[in-house]
Specification:
- The protein is an alpha+beta fold.
- It contains twelve helices and seven strands.
- The strands form two sheets. Strands 2-3-7-6 form a four-stranded antiparallel β-sheet, with no helix packed on it. A three-stranded mixed β-sheet has the order 1-4-5, covered by helices on one side.
- The longest helix is centred in the middle third of the chain and has 42 residues.
- About 45% of the residues are buried.
- Flavin-adenine dinucleotide (FAD) binds next to strand 1 and helix 12.
Length: about 400
């Protein structure tokens, strides 16, 4: 990393810290109460040019690696989990374009446009009838005279109504098998969305994730080259699982931060004594640190691999990497609710109440989504099959 790049990253991290405390945290309760898009956070992120953090510098972005992106997401999550989830999902989509369509003239221009205009990308992998299995599609892209038509009935589409484009999975052609998928960009103005379900959810309410019927068309160049099997294993899964884990940690850190303020306030009331809750705080801080080290370690390993070019990309297709990424996701999604629960035991009733400065309701509800966002059971099932043949533990 050059000194200039490091200075730029530090400045962007400081910008996110400011957005987290001065914008995201300020509006988080209203976003949650109204189940509305965190537009203030997103406007601030766009103003700070953070939506192009992953776009290569030569195309107008910051060219940040996984560890840097995870630091940004985890920092924002300490102000508002839903805002951080929107940012993390956007980065996962941009990663697929940068890493799998970087040689396409169309996508290079698109990335320049994304950086210049701070375009927001959403994701549509879910589909009615595939039951949460992202690696199967029912819908298929139809191509004719250099153009495409695509219709999809998605069960869940986070912030699709607020995005400038959506990356959608579908079958490669009407006669292709369900698992023969491609990933394609559909652009605002070229699609209609008909909302099919509501989004009155327990948590992550600001992600605004109801079901949608998508009807879209556009130039064939918007289909990402190669197969979704590769872009999923080499980019969508690594970016999603590492960035999601980092932001779930950020939510847990926010909860532990509130609990530690609670403990310090108790200590101030009785100078010279250690409040009994301090012991619980010591215990939960151990778990928080372990959780942080898990995503940091994998993000660092991923960056090392990314630095090895095509060989590194090939390695991401191995069972070893699939297991590592799945384990991180399962572990983080289990740890975050447990940590928030521990923090709640420290704050007691003041954390349970929705109108206290120590309130942990939103954080608790938000992290409960972690094990469902790609069901842990589904992922564990895949791990179980892989472990039957994988010996290199
Ligand atoms: C906050 C949030 C935002 C989301 N945003 C988006 C988005 O932007 N775009 C998008 O496309 N999708 C999105 N999703 C959807 C998500 O990616 C999953 O597709 C969806 O949550 C899975 O739905 P499900 O639980 O019904 O599916 P399933 O995976 O089918 O799970 C249903 C049940 O089956 C069980 N099960 C499944 N497989 C197995 C197995 N192998 N062994 C044992 N039990 C199993 C599960 O434990 C669960 O009880 C979002 C989800 C959340 C929570």
């Amino acid at each position: 990393m050059t000194a200039g790049h490091e200075a730029h990253f530090n400045a962007q991290l400081a910008a996110v810290r400011k957005i987290a405390t001065e914008v995201a945290a300020r509006h988080a309760a209203d976003v949650d109460a109204k189940s509305r898009f965190p537009r203030e956070s997103l406007e601030a992120l766009k103003d700070a040019k953070l939506l192009s953090a992953l776009v290569p510098a030569e195309l107008g972005g910051s060219g940040f690696g996984m560890r840097q992106l995870a630091s940004l997401c985890s920092t924002l999550a300490q102000g508002c989990g839903a805002s951080a989830m929107v940012l993390a999902m956007h980065y996962s989509q941009v990663a697929c374009i940068v890493r799998h369509a970087g040689d396409s003239a169309f996508f290079r221009d698109y990335l320049k446009e994304l950086a210049a205009q701070q375009l927001l990308l959403a994701s549509m992998t879910s589909e009615n009838g595939t039951f949460g299995e992202t690696r199967t599609s029912i819908c298929a892209v139809e191509r004719s005279a250099g153009r495409f038509k695509l219709e999809k009935d998605a069960t869940t589409g986070s912030y699709c109504e607020h995005a400038d484009g959506i990356l959608v999975t579908c079958r490669r052609a009407p006669d292709a098998a369900g698992t023969d998928q491609v990933l394609m960009l559909v652009r605002k103005g070229d699609y209609t969305l008909t909302q099919t379900t509501t989004w009155d959810a327990l948590g992550m309410r600001g992600t605004c994730s109801p079901g949608f019927k998508l009807v879209s068309h556009g130039p064939e160049a918007q289909i990402i080259p190669g197969s979704f099997a590769d872009s999923s294993a080499q980019s969508m899964v690594p970016y999603s699982h590492i960035l999601w884990s980092s932001l779930w940690w950020g939510i847990a850190a926010d909860a532990v931060g509130r609990a530690s303020e609670f403990v310090r306030a108790a200590a101030r009331r009785n100078p010279g004594t250690v409040p009994p809750t301090a012991l619980r705080l010591a215990e939960v801080s151990t778990r928080l640190q372990a959780m942080r080290h898990n995503w940091l370690a994998l993000a660092t390993e991923f960056d090392d691999l990314a630095g090895r070019g095509p060989d590194g990309m090939k390695e991401l297709l191995t069972i070893g990497w699939a297991l590592k990424l799945n384990n991180l996701k399962i572990g983080a999604s289990q740890a975050a609710p447990q940590i928030v629960h521990e923090a709640l035991q420290i704050t007691g009733i003041l954390g349970y109440k929705n109108d206290s400065p120590f309130s942990l309701g939103r954080q608790y509800r938000d992290v409960l989504s972690a094990s469902l966002m790609i069901s842990n059971d589904r992922i564990a099932g895949k791990n179980a099959s892989m472990l039957l043949i994988y010996k290199d533990l």
